[in-house]
Amino acid sequence: MQQIRTVTTTVPSVDHLGPMRGRQLADRDLDLAKLTEAGYVLASTHTIAGEERVTFVDTLTREDPTA
């Protein structure tokens, strides 16, 4: 059986919040790295752009290790 996980990250897209955006993107990278270390593979990434924010929805999958 396949396991599916999603990571949702919302970051500001306005210039004056650049440092916050950088931290949030670094946190996203860390979250994705932890899941890939646990055997997950990135299946897709979708972005949803708003006026002041961008949301990333990452979907990761892995085969159930107990199956």
Automatic annotation (TrEMBL):
Where are the stretches annotated Disordered?
1-20
Q: According to the lineage, what is the superkingdom? A: Bacteria
Q: What are the Polar residues biased-composition ranges?
A: 1-12
- Could you tell me what this protein is called? Uncharacterized protein
